[in-house]
Every structure is written in structure tokens, then in C-alpha cells.
Amino acid sequence: MSLLELEHVSKRYGRGLGERVALHDVSLALEPGELVAVWGLRGSGRSTLLRVAAGIEIPDSGIVRFAGCSVADHRDDLLGDGIGYCQRSFRPAEGRHVLDQMVVSQLARGVPQSLAGSRARSALERVDAIQCAKLSPRELNGAEAVRVAIARALALQPRLIVVDEPTLGVDLLARDGILSLLRSLADEGITVLASTGETTGLAGSDRALSLGKGELRGRLTPEIAPVLPLRRAAGQARA
User: Fold this and answer.
1) Measured between alpha carbons, how far is 37 from 206 in angstroms, rounded to an integer?
2) 0.85 cut: is pTM over it?
């Protein structure tokens, strides 16, 4: 069983002549520890795909499963607890500083305050952004904002991280570091689903897919290693 499965998912916006098909009969499977990147032009539906995969939006048809459970039926349990959706936006009411914001987001998920602070610091250290802990969200540059968004998701110890355009607005020299971070998270066993509007954003991915006119193209399921026959023990007779 795959960690994340989308089966024949479709999503439309608007009606009549103004109708726009964002996703059409999309199927996709992700395994633990995979980094999958989806490339598409602006308006291709790539952001919709990620929001549907994370359970933020419900598809018009089809089903999304996470660890065998329907995301639509368990979205309040899965989003933020199992699925980490990286958001760069911050709510002023949740604290003046990055660390405050990260602690409050955990408290909202029921994490004890004594644990929330240590998890927040550990996550910031993991993404090399501990220096941002006492900064205001408005003081973050593009790369720092992405790292903090990833850290905020990591603090909840998800099995899947969904990040929309992680290199958007990031200085050219800092982009490789962001992509290397996502690669290292996947190497540690966390599944990563990312989108990009630039082909350079596909670097380091296990699978690179493309989305256009609502249709997802590429290798939609992971390759399964061939099952090799067991080596016979010395002296074992042939059947």
C-alpha cells in the first residue's frame, strides 16, 4: 500500500463558459521516502493538485487516500498530523516572532506547551534556520521564509510534506540549498510532494511529473524493485 494515493481525481472551478478544469482523472501514488516534483505552467493546476493531495481541498470526483484512509473523511485528523502542508503566510495573532508562531501552531494540534518549544527549535535547526527564531515573519527573506515554512510542518512530525513552489521568490544562489533540504528529508524517510514552475526545481527528485490542461503525465507510480530468487544454501538439492 502506498503512503499517498490519488485515484481518478478531478477538480473544476466555475460553471458554463467560465468553467476551468484544474484536474482531470488524475491518479498518482507516492511511497515513503520519495521526493516527487510536479512541473507545470502558471494556471496548470499544480497548486490545486497539492491542495487536494494534502486534504485542503476536496476533489469533485475520485478519492485521495493517506496510509489507506480517505483524506476527505479524516481531513481534520490527517492535515497537520501525518500530512504537513508548508505555508509561508503567518497570522499576526499567533505571535510576533517565528518561534511563537511555530509553538502556537503546535498548541492548536494539542501538543503540550513544554514539548512545543523544543520541537520548534529542533525543526528550525534541522532546516538550518535557527537564526530566524526571534525574527518577525516580515523580516524573513525568500529562502528563510521557505525554510521556516518547512520547519513549521516538520515540528508536527509528519510522514508527508507538501510544499508548493519551494523556490519561488528565492534568490538564485539559495535555491540549490532548498532543493538539497527537500532531498535530505526524503532520504530520512519523509515523503515529499513539491510543485515547480521551473525545470530547475525538478533537481534531486525521484520522479519528475508534468501537469497541463488538468492531465498529469510521467511515471505516476514508483518503480518496484524486482523480486530476486533466494540463493540456495550450499548443498541444497534442486527441486
Assistant:
1) 8
2) yes
